[in-house]
Amino acid sequence: MASFGLWAFAHFWNAFGALIVTALHVGLAVLVTMHVLLHKRDVPAAIGWMGLAWLSPIIGPALYWMFGINRVRRRAYRISRRYAARRPPPPPIGTLRSEKYAALERAVGVITHRPTLAGNTVRAMRSGDEAYPAMLQAIADAKITVGLTSYIFAADEAGTPFIEALIAAQRRGVEVRVIIDGVGSGYIFSMAVFRLQRGGVKVARFLHSWLPWRMAFLNLRNHKKILVVDGQRGFVGGLNISAHNLKACDPRTAVRDMHFEVRGPVVEQITEAFVTDWEFATGEELRGLTWFPQSPPCGPALARVVTSGPDQDIEKIEFMFLQAIGSAQRSIKIITPYFLPDERLVAALELAAMRGVDVDIVIPENSDHRIMDWAVMAHIAPLLIAGTRIWRAPQPFEHSKLMTIDGGWSLVGSANWDQRSLRLNFELNMEIYDHDFSALLSEKIAARQGTEITLKALYAQPLLVRLRNRAVRLLLPYL
């Protein structure tokens, strides 16, 4: 009788436990479904998350909680709202300062909620050999403030002079703030962070945490490259701080890049991008004339900063790409180290080529990520069919991110043409309305046009190579 009672209790407990687990699974799946329906715009992603929640009990909802919820947007929105309130609204279409590109200027103003600012000069510099000395001199000349953001900050032949210059500036009374990405410069340990902190410099590791429930942020990276000095001089572009960017170091994995020194009123927008990231990372608000002095006009260029990231700025750079492509009448020139745009951008480029616009895209002969190179080769056939020309830049690895439209509008900055830059990374680009500057960038892009990729060569690849490339392309949202 006792054994029967134990059997009955065990049977009841198993049935009750199964009921509890089932109820928990259904409850969590319902919560995930409700959250997805309210917050996910991308239909395939929404269907995927809901399917995972229903078909993978407990595990599916846990994965969604860790990786599917954008936790950075609300905090970033609170910070950016204060700065957005200080900006003037975009001017009416009849008062825009760029006549030929008025529609593009207006659209980007609506996208970014920032005005174009006149009176700027932008100086192009090639790789670390030209850019690092100018940046180090600016830090040495700093009297009030220095703000620096870098995705990669190596404590090597290139990084050590920056570490020493920043510490020296701090010691002579300059307010120095440095943001280093929590993954790009080493997640376990960053020698640059260690040396800067030991020298008294305030450093923030962007979205870096040892807490397990914050590990989901590892996929969100600050890819910006910013230096602002005294609110008067800015440096932006694609250049990290590493010996790979110096010819003198003769690195085995050399990198060629473009960086830009900026003077004029638009430096205030660069500073704003830095201080909002600093507050996001540390909670410290940097404000007042110390960081935002008046920058008098000093050149002919009309310019505006465009930021993007998985926060309040999501998709802004992609929307700007789409608007610029749609505005093109004669030419589109692009150079990028990684070219894996989504179907919207591919379709926009195809349509531009079909309507007679000369579309030239330059990608590296070999990048620093072989899997990316394989995926690119499976991604470009529709563009070639539409009439786009795609070129390989010969070694060394070309890391520049440049774009020009019709010889008068240019874009420089940190964003690549891939899903990571357009959806996951925090990025900073700058648009410039200036014919002379656009002509210079167009020449730089054309100079790197090596071998042209043809459809014949693409289709002549061995079957196993094409299968490999197409299989890797399925990772497009994560590359």
TrEMBL record:
Stretches assigned to the PLD phosphodiesterase domain: 218-245, 394-421
Alphabetized UniProt keyword annotations: Cell membrane, Lipid biosynthesis, Lipid metabolism, Membrane, Phospholipid biosynthesis, Phospholipid metabolism, Repeat, Secreted, Transferase, Transmembrane, Transmembrane helix
The protein's name in its UniProt record: Cardiolipin synthase
Subcellular locations according to the entry: Cell membrane; Secreted
EC number of this enzyme: 2.7.8.-
Pfam family, any one: PLDc_2
Coiled-coil blocks: none
Segments traversing the membrane: 12-34, 46-67
Chief location of this protein within or outside the cell: membrane
Gene: cls
NCBIfam families listed in its UniProt record: bac_cardiolipin
Membrane topology: Multi-pass membrane protein
Provenance organism: Dongia sedimenti
